[in-house]
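Bug #77: duplicate submission created two jobs. Keeping one. Sequence:
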Amino acid sequence: MDNKILFVDDDVTILEGYRRILHREFLISTATGGEQGLALIRTTGPFAIVISDMRMPGMSGAEFLAKVREMAPDTVRMLLTGYSDLDAAIEAVNEARIFRYLSKPCEKEAMVKAIESALALYCSTAADRELIKKAQLINLPASDRGAEDIGRVCDFTKLDGLSGPSEVRACLEPVIGPNSPYYVVLVRLTALPMIEERYGAEASTEYAQKTAQFLMHAFTGNNRLFHWSRDVLMMVVKRQVSPAAMRMEIARLMLDRREFTTEVNGRRIMLAAPTTFDLLPVSAFSTFDNMLAAFNATLIGKP
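Kept job's structure:
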């Protein structure tokens, strides 16, 4: 997901200031006025966040953001306004569903906090839409899903200390239902085939084993880890949080698991250890097979 941010203001100097103070933290684009902003959204959007000045010639910030809402309803919209425009800003927040208004001048710390909150909202909305999409795909024939079927589990050697697919079903079937507090997380060991081809089976097994150890250490408590297939680990995690919050928690943890060291031909080397993941709340499904079908409708492991 490209978390791009668009600033719109008729003053080029102000736009250059936003880019200068924020370019290290965020991916910034700028537009001088509402019409140029709309054109950028059409040609280079979508943007996660659009932040507009209130007073601009030809089209006010509130009018511009109302048009943004029509073009890109998931984009989070924020308004920059001076004290004299406060009543208009409040009206825009209420009527145009603008996420937040910021008073001018806005200090960098306040701006960064507002952007981070807006990005969290944008990611949450996108995650919820993806969950709905998966649920809609459950009843499609497998040939129509256009994706890999992780339900077809072939013979493989399970990692030491981990149970396999049959134990997954036995663990999950009793807890599936609308009030379940569990999530199922699939972790794809995306580098496993490459590591095995280049460095051998021992190195690829070490990559899988160290990833499993990392997950067991990171997710302590009433959680379980399984070896679902040759290059897929499955976690059953108990969390009473939203799907978006759960995704953010796992993404933060996985950032710490990007490489590992191993011994190849008598020397220690560092290898990239990328992983991808997908998750579903158990409460969204009535049967284990329906849950698998929702996972099967996604391109798990594809960047």
